[in-house]
Design brief:
monooxygenase activity, alpha+beta, 2 domains, Cytochrome_P450_Monoox, 66 residues, 4 strands
Length: 66
């Protein structure tokens, strides 16, 4: 990071910076490999409904596996 940013600690990261952060990219990819995000999609029911015999009230958080 010091090689990329030097004394400019407060500036925004740009595309050139990202291309030079190869080690950081490897760390992120390895972290995602070891602990992948769950493949679910969450929604909040806007009205009461029944699905496969299960009743859901309005405002219920509903999660679907993808």
């Amino acid at each position: 990071m010091n090689q990329i940013f030097g004394d400019e600690k407060q500036r925004d990261v740009n595309t050139d910076d990202m291309n030079r952060m190869t080690y950081t990219e490897c760390v992120i990819k390895e972290s995602l490999r070891l602990m992948p995000p769950p493949a679910t999609m969450g929604r909040r029911a806007t009205k009461e409904f029944t699905l496969n015999g299960y009743k859901f009230r309005r405002g219920t958080n509903v999660y679907v596996d993808i």
